[in-house]
């Protein structure tokens, strides 16, 4: 309901993922509760979802319904997460705004006169508007970091090849910098929880090219500013 409301105001959702209610009922019957149990998760348009298109904002991909979930979607579901919407992107995604000829312009919910940033602009707008609490964007040259900044959110661009790629084919570009999927949310704790959930045995088995290194929660703690006495002892 919240996502629909936000979408009416800022045009950030491209598709609702059918079957998410059935998935929730299935999860309730499982004994093992994943780290993301019951959390609705929004995902960027180009991440493959069974029965849905990954348009990249390009008309040529509109007829190509994907036959299977990408690894990240499988892992999110394995951890109890519920992918429920796909979100808008700029055409071809190599852009700092968020507009394409199919779904139109996404606005910034903090100020509709402004852009939400790109290319994960639909994610930024939906989360900032209160329509999602956790989203998956992607970043080559700022596509998670820019919308997070423009929309007042937290976002993480993980190291290249840390998370299995989105699964979309026919990318129009060969990039020198590795594009990588990563979480967007309103606080750092949510990003850490998502990374911990994604970097699990399920992902390492589904995609053997991903190095099987779990998330190190101590990395966050090392970023805490030191008190003056500790600085003096260095």
Automatic annotation (TrEMBL):
<dbReference type="InterPro" id="IPR052096">
    <property type="entry name" value="Endocannabinoid_amidase"/>
</dbReference>
<dbReference type="GO" id="GO:0004040">
    <property type="term" value="F:amidase activity"/>
</dbReference>
<comment type="similarity">
    <text>Belongs to the amidase family.</text>
</comment>
<keyword id="KW-0378">Hydrolase</keyword>
<dbReference type="InterPro" id="IPR036928">
    <property type="entry name" value="AS_sf"/>
</dbReference>
<dbReference type="Pfam" id="PF01425">
    <property type="entry name" value="Amidase"/>
</dbReference>
<dbReference type="InterPro" id="IPR020556">
    <property type="entry name" value="Amidase_CS"/>
</dbReference>
<dbReference type="InterPro" id="IPR023631">
    <property type="entry name" value="Amidase_dom"/>
</dbReference>
<protein>
    <submittedName>
        <fullName>VDHAP protein</fullName>
    </submittedName>
</protein>
<dbReference type="GO" id="GO:0017064">
    <property type="term" value="F:fatty acid amide hydrolase activity"/>
</dbReference>
<dbReference type="GO" id="GO:0009062">
    <property type="term" value="P:fatty acid catabolic process"/>
</dbReference>
<feature type="domain" description="Amidase">
    <location>
        <begin position="5"/>
        <end position="212"/>
    </location>
</feature>
